[in-house]
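I'd like us to work through together how a protein chain folds, taking it slowly. We need material for that, and I hope you will provide a protein of your own picking. Go ahead whenever you are ready, and we will take it from there:
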Amino acid sequence: MLSSCKISLLLLAVVLFSINTIHAIHPLPKEIKAESLYTLSGEDLAFKNTKEIEDILGRKLSIREKISLSFVKKKIKNNPSLNFEQANDQLKIEGFAVAGFVCSLVGFVFAGIILGILGIIFSAIALKKIKNNPETKKGRGLAIAGLVMGIVVLGLTIIGIAILA
């Protein structure tokens, strides 16, 4: 049976691998782009409501497109020269925020000290990156949650060790 240290190292490897691969919104498949929001101008996307956009496209928007549109509208209003694809590509969750949250969450079950510390470190890195690039990086709430949970996990582990010692 695997020890908790080996399990922690395995989870750490998975988390580190995911840092650069997790994104908030994945671009829509290429086959959808030809007849979708990707063909509309930034001005149409920013200042028309969903019904007007559906009328322009001649079809209903998918749930995925509606969710993407709500995020992209905010980006395009700040920079009207962007099109849907450019604005959509800019909305990414910081990978360190996800890594910090996952480490802290898993720290409640396995190896609290190791994963608690990693959760705090990853979350702090994410908060710094998000603060430096707020227009392209998202996930501040996730990073804060990871930071708080990491501190709680670390505190509970230290209290548990003190009681058992």
